[in-house]
Amino acid sequence: MGWTLQQPRSRHLLLLFITFATCITFVFISKSDTRDLYDHSSVTYKMAEMEMRVDHLTRLYELKDKDVQELIKHFSSVLKTIVKSLNVSVSEDIESLMIAYNKSVEMVRSPMAHFDVYTFLPHLRSHENYLRPLILHSGGRNAVSMVFGVPTVRRQQQTYLIQTLINIISNMNQTEQKDSLIVVMIGEIDQQYLQQVTAEIKNRLPEAVNSGLVDIIAPSPEYYPDFSKLRITLGDSEDRVRWRSKQNLDYVFLMMYCQPKGSFYVQLEDDVVAKPQFHTIMKKTALQRIADGQEWFILDFCRLGFIGKMMRCSDLPWLIQFIVMFYNDKPGDWLLDGMMETKACNLEKDLRDCRKRKDEIWVTFRPSLFQHIGTRSSLNGKIQLLKDSLFKKSVNVKRINKIKGK
């Protein structure tokens, strides 16, 4: 999407990863005399994070050299084998190697991935620059664990964006903030309004903006198709079809920008609040499932709509492509459900079997970590009073501590 970078030569990448693997092996062997300090759960957790990051790198960059592909593909399994064979304590060393990984990933990272949007948005075919985001502010932060996408649009009456951002940031400690990126995508083309919202965010949240925690982007005015030519679907009014179709395209643009920025993506809205420690709980939950070898596609931390849906950034292309294909047909959260049903369900089985299979890859966390606070929808005249009843319940401290121990 948009930008491209000149690809490094395969031999340079091969040298990079051979050197990286050699350094790790050396560190593990050099620590073989500290077996009494070995913490199995800590190493397992660190290895899960490394495995997830290597998987993310592999999917971001499709290499032509088969040797390099195989080296990256089996990198995490080799590390895990080494750890099991050498009963050593390596947590501090893995931390330093993670930093080295974050630096090396920039060599092969493309700022925005390429997706086949032109078939379904043909007006973009001859104008690839229309997919370039308007960067209203960016600190250039990359290689974080958590990327939070916050789409926002002009509302006729009350706006909740600043309240939402303040709440999200205040419920993260300094360590969590440094490991996060919040991307605010303003789905408007009015330049005056874009500058107004950007200035308000900078004025109200100067520390977050200056530290690189918050990126602010907007689409090119030419990104959107001619909404007057949309098909009327689901028996909805023309205004509602236009509203939800544009919302879907806003999701797509936001996800395409966020996809190469980190390891996990969390979809939020501009009218939500969060529980304290939500970042740590979400990250630990994901890494625990990875370490345990449990399959998942979505970790769901709010029962309402698209709020609190967490995915691997490397899995986002599946959802992006699905929404692009059917953006005119259904709301985004319905499309997400449809994609999961397509992935999980056997048409020869009954609905109960389908639900069971979906629940295996769409995992719901209780209690909810996010709550919807808006009452005025971005669709003019629509009142939205939905609340997640599970948000009121307190978080199970024992469960959090168990996750933290991983």
Automatic annotation (TrEMBL):
<dbReference type="InterPro" id="IPR006759">
    <property type="entry name" value="Glyco_transf_54"/>
</dbReference>
<feature type="transmembrane region" description="Helical">
    <location>
        <begin position="12"/>
        <end position="29"/>
    </location>
</feature>
<dbReference type="GO" id="GO:0005793">
    <property type="term" value="C:endoplasmic reticulum-Golgi intermediate compartment"/>
</dbReference>
<keyword id="KW-0812">Transmembrane</keyword>
<keyword id="KW-0472">Membrane</keyword>
<dbReference type="GO" id="GO:0006487">
    <property type="term" value="P:protein N-linked glycosylation"/>
</dbReference>
<dbReference type="InterPro" id="IPR057279">
    <property type="entry name" value="MGAT4"/>
</dbReference>
<feature type="domain" description="MGAT4 conserved region">
    <location>
        <begin position="116"/>
        <end position="390"/>
    </location>
</feature>
<dbReference type="GO" id="GO:0005795">
    <property type="term" value="C:Golgi stack"/>
</dbReference>
<dbReference type="GO" id="GO:0005783">
    <property type="term" value="C:endoplasmic reticulum"/>
</dbReference>
<dbReference type="Pfam" id="PF04666">
    <property type="entry name" value="MGAT4_cons"/>
</dbReference>
<keyword id="KW-1133">Transmembrane helix</keyword>
<protein>
    <recommendedName>
        <fullName>MGAT4 conserved region domain-containing protein</fullName>
    </recommendedName>
</protein>
<dbReference type="GO" id="GO:0008375">
    <property type="term" value="F:acetylglucosaminyltransferase activity"/>
</dbReference>
